[in-house]
Hints:
Strand content: 25-35%
Strand order of the largest sheet: 1-5-2
Structural class: alpha+beta
Oligomer: single chain
Number of strands: 5
Number of domains: 1
Amino acid sequence: MIAAQATAKYVRTSAQKAGLVLDLIRGSEVNQALATLRFSKKKIARDIDKVLRSAIANAQQKPGFGGDVERLYVTACYADQGPSQKRVRPAPMGRAFRVVKRTAHLTVSVAERPGKAVAAAAPKGSAQAANVKATAAAKTRQATKTGPKAGAQK
């Protein structure tokens, strides 16, 4: 299983605002995540889009990558708080207010989903196949015999 990550440091936003957008893409397929970020109204979505594309490119460069980007999904994404710039803003009566300009470190991790195992069909003469057919037939008979309101009491 191929896994890769990308980080953007000192992005000029708060970690809380970035976390709101990162929550939208966590656990989703990369193509769906890119579409979600593209149509998000948040400004930080563009920066997260860059980081996600970088993580995808990092995964493609790893040896052993299958070449199918469709199988990649977002395993983890988070925003850590970076250093804050402190500025002073003049206030009435000779006072001063402090302005805190926050930064964040954005990290996105992607991984390749394991190959989907195809269940082997049971041979026609096996007992397991006969049991499955009998169970399905019994459920069908029960549904047609009792009608839609089988469990309702009068």
